[in-house]
């Protein structure tokens, strides 16, 4: 499919019109449909072939001539530009629902199989029934219309001659001029290893283990001149792996200012003719009528949307949205199925199905953990208290804690300084080996119900983190410190307790939180005491829901001071992983996103509430927990040493017994 004139047939004028979607039958007066020039135009321009010789069935079941919509023309232009710059087409498409993009690519795949010798087309969808009935149906519908048109245009008969059509297996094999093939499969192992030159995969983000599938599928693609590879997904089904590929290519084009080999394309709803030309209730319906039913809680900020300038990448200009589009938007919002869980409204669901921008497309709600509606208020209307600098607090070794943190390659934000008579908790999330992770500490004020301070860095060693944690905790009236104990819990514990060879300034710090451990014998989480409790807070499948529950309460509590915008961003992107039965498997931060501050904040609040709960239950913290933990820690180490000595003794006895038996065996052999 070369976008350049044939040596003999196509003129420069026809080529120009073909590239601008202006070509028509009037440009071929001589013999019209039977002219070699017309046939060459059908071969060179897929859109012209579709519009002149194919039909489509609309939503009302009526058959009508195929006419490319603006969104489809935009994609056709992207294909042309890709071929011009790279001699092949690699696109990753992100869009809303009901854009008929799959129909267009199925027809383009049909064109590819017909006009190129021995070329194979694969059209794949995540679900087998959708692939066979939906995607294959688009291609088969195009072939059926060509069969009808062949009665009037003889050149089609040799072109579309088929060896077999297998509807149940979603297969078309041509035996005409091209000997091409169209194979439609589920995007699973069945699609891997099938050699092809045109591949269109719909909803790739719904494919389990997409990265593994993609690596295997790509090997079957014949990387030859003019081959096609298109990934297409609606925003509703986008997934971190898919969005990672999309954003990488999107940003690459912006940075380099040139067309990348794998081009990211976003299609907003105002690029769809059907939505822009939506039928109004009556001829006299005006903006005044529209604003009578204005409701910001239901429809969002409609006036801002109606007056904003929106970029139309097809026409390369800014536009304002017409009344017809705004009425379509409002009707669509009312028609969305409301998701009752987690406070999602019909407006939230609409934004997910019909995103106006690429950024909005990323903010899908289907698997979000936290209520976006409440987060949006904190995101766009943050309240930041006025910081009154003071050094009230019990820190003695360091005069200026924030300055001390900054000198040690750290970032610190103080929203409220320590106040006399107040108590605080410090939650610490220790950086893991994940790229970009930071060690983060958050100071929580239970009395004022807000975040007091945050300190973070991705440069700190365990020693430096312990030293800074001690400095901050002492500054905030000897705050209770709780750290996530999953990765380097024992390392930081020894630093905090002063048990290491090289200890941080201010160690030992003894006011450390101990996590209760369930006592099976007493059927209690505490038993008679918490002597057997463990230091720190361990995040796992059972404890994480508690942290999430706490954060959800804070988000919904308008009096809670969550001042950090980094925290709001982490809450915004935090996801659920949901299985096929709708059950939550795990909660996590997507790729290239983090949950460091989220975890630190949740731990700090959890510890504060747990401390209050223990006081209400009249369960006192033992002296060893806060004021003499070294003795308790040494007691545990002695117990572990005794257990090890016992095991070593058994091992020695066992070794003697084995030697005795083998010794006798060797002696018997010698005899």
Please outline what is shown here.
By secondary structure, the protein is of the alpha/beta class. It contains 25 helices and 21 strands.
Walkthrough of the structure:
By secondary structure, the protein is an alpha/beta fold. Mean pLDDT is 75; it is low at 1-8, 387-397, 519-531, 617-634 and 665-671. An 8-stranded mixed sheet has the order 5-6-7-4-8-9-3-10. Helix content is 43%, strand content 15%. Helix 17 packs antiparallel against helix 22 and helix 19 packs across helix 20. The protein has 25 helices and 21 strands. It has 4 domains: 69-267, Rossmann fold (3-Layer(aba) Sandwich), CATH 3.40.50; 273-365, no CATH class; 401-627, Nucleotidyltransferase, domain 5, CATH 3.30.420.240; 634-671.
Number of helices: 25
Globally, the shape reads: elongated
Number of domains: 4
Helix content: 40-55%
Beta strand count: 21
Structural class: alpha/beta
Keywords:
671 residues, alpha/beta, Rossmann fold, Nucleotidyltransferase, domain 5, five-stranded mixed β-sheet, 21 strands, disordered C terminus
Question: Helix and strand layout, with pairings?
Answer:
Layout: H1 12-19, H2 36-44, H3 46-53, E1 55-57, E2 63-65, H4 70-86, E3 89-95, H5 101-115, E4 120-125, H6 128-149, H7 155-159, E5 162-166, E6 171-174, E7 181-186, E8 198-202, H8 210-220, E9 228-234, H9 240-256, E10 263-267, H10 273-276, H11 287-292, H12 296-299, H13 302-307, E11 310-312, E12 317-319, H14 323-335, H15 346-353, H16 358-362, H17 372-380, H18 401-407, E13 411-414, E14 425-429, E15 439-445, E16 450-457, H19 462-475, E17 480-483, H20 489-497, E18 514-515, E19 534-535, H21 544-556, H22 565-573, E20 575-578, E21 584-588, H23 596-616, H24 623-626, H25 629-670
Parallel strand pairs: 3-9, 3-10, 4-7, 4-8, 8-9, 14-17
Antiparallel strand pairs: 1-2, 5-6, 6-7, 11-12, 13-16, 14-15, 15-16, 18-19, 20-21
């Amino acid at each position: 499919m070369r976008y350049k004139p044939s040596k003999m047939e196509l003129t420069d004028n026809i080529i120009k019109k073909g590239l601008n979607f202006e070509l028509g039958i009037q440009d071929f007066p001589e013999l019209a449909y039977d002219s070699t020039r017309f046939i060459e135009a059908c071969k060179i321009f897929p859109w012209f072939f579709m519009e002149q010789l194919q039909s489509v069935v609309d939503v009302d079941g009526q058959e009508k001539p195929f006419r490319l919509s603006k969104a489809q023309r935009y994609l056709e232009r992207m294909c042309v530009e890709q071929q011009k710059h790279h001699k092949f087409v690699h696109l990753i498409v992100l869009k809303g629902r009901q854009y008929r993009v799959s129909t267009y690519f199925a027809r383009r795949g049909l064109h590819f199989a017909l006009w190129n010798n021995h070329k194979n087309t694969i059209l794949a969808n995540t679900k087998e029934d959708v692939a066979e009935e939906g995607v294959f149906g688009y291609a088969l519908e195009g072939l059926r219309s060509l069969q009808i048109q062949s009665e009037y245009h003889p050149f089609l008969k040799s072109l579309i001659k088929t060896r077999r059509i297998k509807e149940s297996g979603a297969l078309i094999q041509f035996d005409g001029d091209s000997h091409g093939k169209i194979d439609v499969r589920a995007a699973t192992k069945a699609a891997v290893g099938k050699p092809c030159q045109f591949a269109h995969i719909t909803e790739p983000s719904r494919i389990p283990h997409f990265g593994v599938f993609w690596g295997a599928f790509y090997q079957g693609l014949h990387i030859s001149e003019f081959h096609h590879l298109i990934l297409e997904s609606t925003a509703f089904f986008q997934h971190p792996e898919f969005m990672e590929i999309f954003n990488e290519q999107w940003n690459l084009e912006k940075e380099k200012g040139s067309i990348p080999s794998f081009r990211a394309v976003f299609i907003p709803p105002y690029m769809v003719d059907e939505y822009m030309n939506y039928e109004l209730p009556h001829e006299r319906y005006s903006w005044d009528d529209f604003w009578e039913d204005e409701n910001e809680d239901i429809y969002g900020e409609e006036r801002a949307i109606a007056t904003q300038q929106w970029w139309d990448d097809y026409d390369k200009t800014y536009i304002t949205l017409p009344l017809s589009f705004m009425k379509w938007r409002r009707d669509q919002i009312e028609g969305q199925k409301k998701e009752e869980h987690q406070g999602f409204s019909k407006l939230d669901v609409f934004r997910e199905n019909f995103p106006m921008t690429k950024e909005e497309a990323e903010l899908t709600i289907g698997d979000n953990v936290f209520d976006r509606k409440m987060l949006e208020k904190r995101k766009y209307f943050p309240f930041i208290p006025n910081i009154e600098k003071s050094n009230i607090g019990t820190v003695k070794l360091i005069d200026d804690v924030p300055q001390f943190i900054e000198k040690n390659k750290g970032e610190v934000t103080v929203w409220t300084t320590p106040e006399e008579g107040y108590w605080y908790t410090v939650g610490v999330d220790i950086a893991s080996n994940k790229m970009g992770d930071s060690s983060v500490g958050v100071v929580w004020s239970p009395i004022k119900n807000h975040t007091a301070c945050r300190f973070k860095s991705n440069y700190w060693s365990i020693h430096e983190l312990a030293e800074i944690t001690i400095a901050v905790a002492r500054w905030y009236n000897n705050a209770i410190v709780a750290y996530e104990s999953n990765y380097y819990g024992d390392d930081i514990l020894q630093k905090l307790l002063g048990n290491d060879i090289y200890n941080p300034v201010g160690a030992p710090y003894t006011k450390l939180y101990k996590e209760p451990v369930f006592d099976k014998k007493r059927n209690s989480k505490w038993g008679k005491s918490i002597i057997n409790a463990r230091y720190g807070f361990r995040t796992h499948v059972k404890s994480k829901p508690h942290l999430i529950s706490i954060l959800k309460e804070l988000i919904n509590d308008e009096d809670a001071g969550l001042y950090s915008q980094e925290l709001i961003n982490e809450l915004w992107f935090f996801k659920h992983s949901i299985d096929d039965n709708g059950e939550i498997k795990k909660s996590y931060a997507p790729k290239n996103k983090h949950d460091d501050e989220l975890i630190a904040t949740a731990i700090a609040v959890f510890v504060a509430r747990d401390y209050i709960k223990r006081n209400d239950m009249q369960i006192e913290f033992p002296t060893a927990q806060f004021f003499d933990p070294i003795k308790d820690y040494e007691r545990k180490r002695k117990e572990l040493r005794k257990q090890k000595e016992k095991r070593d003794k058994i091992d020695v006895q066992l070794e003697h017994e084995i030697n005795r038996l083998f010794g006798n065996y060797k002696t018997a052999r010698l005899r």
